Amino acid sequence: MCCQETIEDFKKVECVLKSKLKSTKGKPNRVLFSDAEIKSKIVNKPLDDKTFYYGILSVGNGGTATLVLYGGAEYNIVANNQIIELFQHIKDVTGSNLHFRGWSLTLE
């Protein structure tokens, strides 16, 4: 069984997503995104996109970001904070101090 790790373990997240979305195929990638990469790859992407992100999002001095979590719930991150979370995209970004490291998972 693939779901036997800690809550922070990416393999558990991958297993749960595949099970929930009834997908047997997925392409996980380790990623490290700068502010510019976050804005070009994650911010305001289509809601029907099947790419999920899991890891640590840091919002630096003077910034804010709204994460759109699995299922559409929104979570606001304010300046000088980090969150470990599974999300589909980011919207309503202010400032230029975002950083993300973790995984992307595109399901088929």
In short:
This protein is of the alpha+beta class.
Please tag this protein with its features.
single chain; 108 residues; 6-stranded antiparallel sheet; 2 helices; 6 strands
Describe this structure in words.
- There is one protein chain.
- The chain has helices spanning 10-20, 35-41; strands spanning 26-33, 51-59, 64-69, 74-77, 81-94, 98-107.
- It has 108 residues and is of the alpha+beta class.
- It has a six-stranded antiparallel beta sheet, sandwiched between helices.
- A hairpin with a 4-residue loop joins β3 and β4.
- The chain starts with 9 loop residues before the first helix and ends with a strand.
- The mean pLDDT is 86.
Summarize the topology.
Elements lengths: L9 H11 L5 E8 L1 H7 L9 E9 L4 E6 L4 E4 L3 E14 L3 E10 L1
- Strand order, main sheet: write it out: 1-6-2-5-3-4
Strand tally? 6
Count every helix, treating DSSP H or I runs of 4 or more residues as helices: 2
Strand content: over 45%
Oligomer: single chain
Global structural class: alpha+beta
Terminal Cα separation, in Å? 21 Å
**Average residue-wise pLDDT:** 86
Instruction: Sketch the topology as an H/E string, one letter per element.
Output: HEHEEEEE
Kindly provide the radius of gyration, computed on alpha-carbon positions and rounded to a whole number of angstroms.
14 Å
Helix proportion: 10-25%
Low-confidence stretches: none
Shape: globular
Largest sheet: 6 strands, antiparallel
